[in-house]
Amino acid sequence: MYSAQLLDHFQNPRNAGEIADADAVSEIENPACGDILRLSLKVSADRITQAQFKAKGCVAAIACGSAVTDLVVGKTLEKARALLREDVSAAVGGLPQASTHAAQLALDALSAALSQIKQ
To answer: Which of left, alpha, beta for 3 (phi over 0: left; psi -120 to 50: alpha)?
Structure first.
């Protein structure tokens, strides 16, 4: 069963879309389930100023994509890199064991995008 927070992120996703002049864009696919998450970031003065996502996948994947954008906007690159799967899970009110892959997908997309940004 999904939490009310997770369902809210799924039904009312935050920061959906793509940043046209993004500083970094990543697209990650989970080969086991086929979920795809595309994440774009805008950075200024070592801080994430904007994050948007597009997702094709399960309810949890869309909710975690939404949550990760909420979590990183305003954070320094260092703090964004330090996010854990538990942080994403907590942001959606918890995940069923079978859906923890969704939080990892969001973090993998974040990590791939952050790796494109020069320090």
So the answer is: beta
Judging by DSSP bridges, how do beta strands 24-29 and 36-44 pair with one another?
antiparallel
Question: Is pTM, for the whole model, over 0.85?
Answer: yes
Packed helices 4-11 and 59-72: angle between N→C axes, nearest 10 degrees: 90
At 33, list the tokens. Answer: 């389930």
The CATH class given to the 4-114 domain equals alpha beta
Domain ranges of the chain: 4-114
| Distance from the Cα of residue 8 to its chain's centroid | 15
Q: What is the pLDDT of residues 3-60, one digit of tens each?
A: 999 999 999 999 999 999 999 999 999 988 899 999 999 999 999 999 999 999 999 9
Q: Are 88 and 103 in contact (CB under 8 A)?
A: yes
